[in-house]
Amino acid sequence: MYNFETSTVGASARAGSRRASRSVRRTGVPIIRVTRPGRLAYVPAMSAACVRAFHAGDVPAAGALLAARHRTHRLGCPLLSPRYEDEPAATAEVAAAFALPGASGAAAVQDGGIVGFLLGAPKASPVWGPNVWIEAAGQAAAEPELVRDMYGLAAAQWVQESRTAHYVLVPASDEGLLRAWYRLGFGQQQAHAVRPLPGPTPAAPPKVAVRRARRSDLPALARLEVEVPRQHSLAPTFSASPVPSYEECLAGWEEDFDDPAYTTFVAEFEGAVIGSSIGCALELSASHLPLTRPDHAGFLAFAAVFPHARGLGAGRALGEAVSAWTAQAGYQCVATDWRVTNLLSSRTWPRLGFTESFLRLHRLVGH
Ligand SMILES: CC(C)(COP(=O)(O)OP(=O)(O)OC[C@H]1O[C@@H](n2cnc3c(N)ncnc32)[C@H](O)[C@@H]1OP(=O)(O)O)[C@@H](O)C(=O)NCCC(=O)NCCS
What we know:
Layout: E1 3-7, H1 9-15, H2 18-27, E2 31-36, E3 39-44, E4 50-53, H3 59-76, H4 87-99, E5 104-110, E6 113-120, E7 131-134, E8 139-141, H5 145-160, E9 165-171, H6 175-182, E10 187-196, E11 209-212, H7 218-233, H8 246-256, E12 263-269, E13 272-281, E14 297-305, H9 314-328, E15 333-339, H10 345-351, E16 355-364
Parallel strand pairs: 7-9, 14-15
Antiparallel strand pairs: 1-2, 2-3, 4-5, 5-6, 6-8, 9-16, 10-15, 10-16, 11-12, 12-13, 13-14
Helix pairs in contact: 1-2, 3-4, 5-6, 7-8
The structure holds coenzyme A.
């Protein structure tokens, strides 16, 4: 268990670590003193904040910080919902994050006020390993550097609980915050992205024909469904998600094909189906929690092209078909996401006008 206390330069000099106090004297920067039984460590910081465990009473102040973060975020990503610029809505998201089973975290306090918070909770799926997730509503700080101190406290408990796989969603335009996380050993895993609806100018005619899927396409749709997890299982993504069999996918399609919540397209080339895509409401995606969602957004939920037919323009045509469908269905923009390490999707979707809104970072502790 760590103890944190603030300290001035003079006090740190008295505390015993000569090397640390020398460097602090040189820079004159106040420090946060981080102690644990039997060991002293000194962390230069931007302010004399004190870090402690997050309490229920911190929720309103954390909501105010989150609303401020979201206001700044929307300057670069205006498609995100304006709703969370308001403190009550942002506070409700923080309260929901803290109410999750197993939630815990840290708060940074300065002059009696909360200047930063960090909240994580585990997910049940074994795909993520022994995990903790800091979702989009799980952090905000007056200074990015504070997340390093808060993670230092919160992660001590998570690792003590053997939760060593850590995930965090960070606004993609917040270079300072991203850099703070990179300097905690995190790297990019997933991108969430949005694009406006297609403009009035018609897109160039697709190089391959795209149409709505029919029941007779089910075998091709089942084979294409295997392509995304198969791609993700390969280098350099190495996802742990299981690759389903063709038979499992076919059974799923037989059951779900008529579900009106999903709209499926296929691309044809020389008379054969070579790719497919699916559009739906963004709310149907479990990985896009409220703060990451633009209002009234459609979702490019799936797209795949058989390996032999890639590079012909089918991916673009299938993505544009979903965008055109979202416009017709009355949505105001389109969202999607991709594995940053998927060399195919991470290059395709930005070409179609998707820009990153949030980045999910990942760290596996232990090696
Ligand atoms: C992603 C995928 C659907 C793209 O399909 P595709 O038919 O190869 O894509 P297109 O030929 O239409 O290319 C679309 C655009 O992306 C670009 N692009 C596609 N792959 C690229 C690559 N590997 N490197 C650089 N650019 C690439 C193309 O140049 C094109 O841009 P342009 O139209 O402005 O010239 C396909 O690669 C695929 O099925 N991948 C495996 C499954 C997968 O990853 N699905 C997405 C999950 S999020």
